Amino acid sequence: MSQFTLGWEEWLSLPDLGLPAVRAKVDTGARTSALHAFAIEPFGSTKKPMVRFAIHPDPNDPHLEMICSAPMKDRREVTSSNGETELRFVIETTVNMGERSWPIEVTLTDRGSMAYRMLLGRTALDDDMIVSPSNSFCQPELSFDAYHGIPRSERHRRALRMAILTREPENYSTRKLIAAAEMRGHSMEVIDTSRCYMNIHSVGGEVHYDGRRLPHYDAVIPRIGASITSYGTAVVRQFESIGTYCLSGSEGITMSRDKLHAHQVLARVQIGMPTTAFARSPKDSANVISLVGGAPLVLKLLESTQGKGVVLAETKKAAESVISAFQGLRADFLVQSFVKEAAGEDIRCFVVGGKVVAAMRRRGKPDDFRSNLHQGGTAEPVRISRQERETAIRAARTMKLDVAGVDLLRGEDGPKVLEVNSSPGLEGIERTSGKDIAGLVIAHIEAKVAPKPSRARAKRPPG
User: Residue 246: left if φ>0, alpha if ψ -120 to 50, beta else—which one?
Assistant: First the structure.
């Protein structure tokens, strides 16, 4: 076996951490290797503990900051050369030097006052490695310039700490999002939205849960039920106020849950929809019916979900009876024209990050005009037209939603938006399309919160 010679200082890279260039001191007098780290934060489950930290890889450039994360291997006491003992997190990572790569154990500690951001101790050296104390850089030299101008597609994606706001931890969508996040090395905590409480003040603000202050999350996925929309959006706003990326923003959730508000917003940007009317007084019932072209027509409660509170009135008399019943309950509702050519079908377009990633055609039961799967409807894959695709994307963008389920009818004069869902279910669309929609959602979150290496003030030669 040929010998591998190292100088007392060397350049190396740590690809698992997304660090393309680190200048290290090689010290056989030290047993343990150490990496500069600050803002160290453990996260993840007890079975899969993780640790996240920040590093300034270039000692001369405090503006160059990288965020790293790795599985936590241990936490142990380490005594430094000056005799001080410190409890440090321990990770295992791959080191590249020249043409050689090997795994090493590294402890995390603040080396901000040190000239070298990494110390390579003797336990990190293989038996065939020889250190020449009088030589420097026996292996190929690197440069801190490697951190600048990295294409977005090649940026290192660190493990993210995420939370999902839901009161249904065992439903399909929740389980799939958790599995997709963990498959990509992230951690996901389930938070019951109704049990969150907030400390609202002018600096930062806090969200508390189950007697503790919640940590900073890279992203939050709101899946808030219609029954707690008001409180749920308040919780989302609090996360937004402290700088957390929320997959569905509070404004988008609020607009989408109020059907009248949603239709007004969509109409403002000339997105097609069934003719819609709204009134409060019983004296206006006949006028409202005539505005949508008469019977048959559809009546919808403003906050109905999954096809509940949606009624087809086939005659004017039936429509008046339903309107009278809704008004007697003091329930706000919409009156919409019935799109006969849709024949009990609609199209669900699933939009993620401004793209339609999947679509399905839903058909209602033979005796039901509603096509919702929760009402016994069926679904099949469907090819959508360019106009339908653009309409779905525009609707989601107008409602300020990064992820949305947009329901369309195929009308004679083009697609008509029925609803924009801010918390679309994954089960029907995944099973119908055969696509990993949960994985696409997590990939979108990665793209939104991936670290962006800062630019150095000036480029300098290596060393």
Answer: beta
Same-domain status, 244 and 322: no
The parent domain of residue 101 ranges over: 4-154
Task: State the pLDDT at residue 289.
Answer: 84
In a domain, 459, yes or no: no
Cα–Cα distance, 161 to 447 (Å, whole number): 14
Residue written as token pair 């890889």: 57
Token pair in block for residue 268? 């403002």
Peptide bond into 296 cis (omega under 30): yes
Q: What is the pTM of this model?
A: 0.69
Considering its fold, how many domains does the chain have in total? 4
d(CA 69, CA 157): 9
Annotated binding site for ATP: 300, 346, 370-372
Q: Count CB atoms within 10 A of the CB of residue 66.
A: 21
pLDDT (tens digit per residue) in 387-415: 999 999 999 999 999 999 999 998 888 89
Start-end of H helices in 245-284: 250-257, 259-268
Annotated binding site: 300, 346, 370-372, 407, 419, 421
pLDDT at 456: 38
pLDDT tens-digit series, residues 166-211: 999 999 999 999 999 988 888 899 999 999 999 887 655 789 998 8
65 with 148, same domain: the answer is yes
The annotated binding site for Mg(2+) is made up of 407, 419, 421
45 plus 92 within the same structural domain: yes
Asked if residue 40 is part of any domain, the answer here is: yes
Tell me the C-alpha distance between 91 and 343, whole Å. Answer: 60
Residue 262 lies in a domain: no
With a cut of 70, list the residues of the chain below it in pLDDT: 1, 81-83, 149-158, 202-204, 281-283, 303-308, 341-343, 364-376, 450-463
CA 157 to chain CA mean position, Å: 13
